[in-house]
Amino acid sequence: MPLAPGTHLGSYEIVAPLGAGGMGEVYRARDTRLARDVAVKVLPEAFASDAERMRRFEQEARAVAALNHPNVLSVFDTGTQEGVPYLVCELLEGTSLRELVGHGPIPSRKSVEYAQQIADGLAAAHEKGIVHRDLKPENLFLTGGGRLKILDFGLAKMPARESATSVADGGTATIAAATSPGVVMGTNGYMAPEQVRGEAVDHRADIFSFGVTLYEMLTGQRAFQRETSVETLSAILKEDPPDLDTEKLHVSPGLERIVRHCLEKKAADRFQSARDLMFALGTLSDTTVRMETRAAPARGRSLRIASVAVLGALLVRAKPVAPQWCTFSGLAPPRRVRLPAAKVRATRSGRLTMPTWRSLPQASFARPQSRVAGSRISPRWGQVREEGLGAARASSSIRARQAADYGG
Fold first, then answer.
1. 93: buried, middle or exposed (CB in 10 Å: 19+, 13-18, 0-12)?
2. Which end of the chain has the least Cβ crowding within 10 Å, N or C?
3. Is 269 annotated in the active site?
4. What is the mean pLDDT of the chain?
5. Strand partners of residue 87
6. Which residues contact 154 (CB under 8 A, 6 or more apart)?
7. How far is CA 279 from CA 123, 273, 293, in A?
């Protein structure tokens, strides 16, 4: 039976219901001691007698309490009122990632930003030996301030030492009990292949679920959705998701490679840690430099005409093309530089090559804090991308500006 407004659970007064699911009911409540609004998750009395549901409820409390990270939901308190267990956590205002994805693809720049936060939260959990095992858009929440939070650790795999501690203390040993072989734990469509097969899993299963979620953010479509559950499970084991339409979705090749790397069928072929994944996502933001191209006003040529000229260069030896305007956002502050025609060349493969900042007139811009080394213009006329990683690391302020500029 739902709790009525005004009901007290310890020092928490129920204000209004927020939602309900298979693992309990969630209410908005008021902490009468600290005068703050909180969320209270209650396991209904009917479920309290279910040993498995009780185990998961207590497991979630232990898992989240072990973490203190801005991208993981914070737990404040736990208790029992007349045989009804409850969990008190921070009250989040915003929307779930599921609702966000329901409106269509999320722009690649925002997707990368959210993905970095998810990876950061996962890294914190994995470093504590906690594997989420149920990462999906429903368990990711975006606050009004743009902070992404990982929710619902009810299916989490706890570190082995938790089991030993529970038994030694005479506590509930089932809290950290290992999943029996052959038991499938997770949500259909988001589980890693090893989860589908009922094998023992580690943190790399979360990496796969992360890749499925990132794919859905970029495309607005589920990676392995089929007509039946059995077909969906089979697709996870045997098939690759449809290719990303990089042109239509404005997804950079680097971002596509990250998604594919996460979705490798074998755990050994994926990113081996969430920290490695974070580094790869950060490299996307740090080394992507935006550019605009347009024909020189004196010649009066449009971008279309300039493109035809480049195609003609494919049939002959490399020739200079029209002067280009390029914005180097890696510089401090960013500078928009008009490159001389002699500095931009079309190769036989159709690639437009650009000079490094060292070879440009130094009067064009201030000395940079972050250098862009070995850059080129892609045939799409869309970006200048760094060929290597020789550039010095930017300061945090420059990184933030680069991340904000990333658009895929």
1. exposed
2. N
3. no
4. 74
5. 41, 78
6. 23, 56, 57, 59, 60, 134
7. 11, 10, 30
Region class of 381: left (phi > 0), else alpha (psi between -120 and 50), else beta: left
- The pLDDT of residue 160 is 67
**Do residues 377 and 354 lie in contact, with contact meaning Cβ atoms separated by under 8 Å?**
yes
- Per residue in 129-159, pLDDT (tens digit) is 999 999 999 999 999 999 999 998 888 888 8
Name the active-site residue from 120, 134, 206, 286. Answer: 134
Q: What does the domain layout of the chain look like in residue ranges?
A: 8-90, 94-286, 291-405
Q: Which CATH class is domain 8-90?
A: alpha beta
Give the DSSP per-residue string, 290-336: E------TTTT--HHHHHHHHHHHTTSS-EE---EEEEETTSSS-EE
Q: What is the pLDDT of residue 47?
A: 74
At the topology level, CATH places domain 94-286 in Transferase(Phosphotransferase); domain 1 (1.10.510)
Strand order in the sheet with 345-346: 288-290, 383-386, 375-377, 352-353, 345-346, 319-320
pTM of the model: 0.66
Instruction: Give the residues of the chain that fall short of pLDDT 50.
Output: 163-180, 287-324, 327-336, 341-344, 346-352, 356-408
